[in-house]
């Protein structure tokens, strides 16, 4: 009888070790979540899902963008985060600050945030709840999930509908011309970093005098 084991792909010891480490880290993270004092809004409380083309910012970048949003929104300002959940989570960590924030996101895991969560599919840019009034946000931060003109153009419809004027867009450097065309935004000096390095160079674009230059 043939040896059945021959058909089973063997994982190298290196891969196995990496997998074990990954599962261990995951367990530790889960453990941290359930332990005392876990902040449900903190970055990492919802893992990024690459199948939804989600890539979280590094902690530093998320903080920097959140700070910029609060300054740009002003006292009592309203901030909308479109497909930028790590900025939203950073904003939520700043409890007691004088602003309000909504998250428009395709990933329904974010519904844990209650009424601040608005299910959003860029394919239907204006399919928004009635209580989201036009031009009711002091600043809109958006990070379209795909680097395509179609995705940017549709997200741009939502951004223009929601913002009173200020726009902070994060997308690939390759999208500079399209960003200018659809949203009249210009590239800033600030370079956003992701918690995992992405192949595409990312940049921030704004249409107002920001602190990101």
TrEMBL record:
Major site of localization recorded for this protein: cytoplasm
Annotated compartments: Cytoplasm
- Single GO molecular-function term? protein-lysine N-methyltransferase activity
* UniProt entry tagged with the keyword Cell division: no
InterPro entries per record = DNA_methylase_N6_adenine_CS, Efm5/EEF1AKMT1, Mlase_EEF1AKMT1/ZCCHC4, SAM-dependent_MTases_sf
Q: Which GO terms describe its cellular component?
A: cytoplasm
Sorted alphabetically, the Gene Ontology BP terms of this entry are: methylation
Q: Which Pfam families match?
A: N6-adenineMlase
This enzyme catalyses: L-lysyl-[protein] + 3 S-adenosyl-L-methionine = N(6),N(6),N(6)-trimethyl-L-lysyl-[protein] + 3 S-adenosyl-L-homocysteine + 3 H(+)
Recorded hits in PROSITE patterns, A to Z, give: N6_MTASE
- Work out whether the entry's keyword set contains Methyltransferase: yes
Q: Which UniProt keywords apply?
A: Cytoplasm, Methyltransferase, Transferase
Q: Which HAMAP family match?
A: Methyltr_EFM5
What protein is this chain from?
EFMT1 methyltransferase
Whose protein is this, by species?
A: Leptocoma aspasia
Q: What is the lineage of its organism?
A: Eukaryota, Metazoa, Chordata, Craniata, Vertebrata
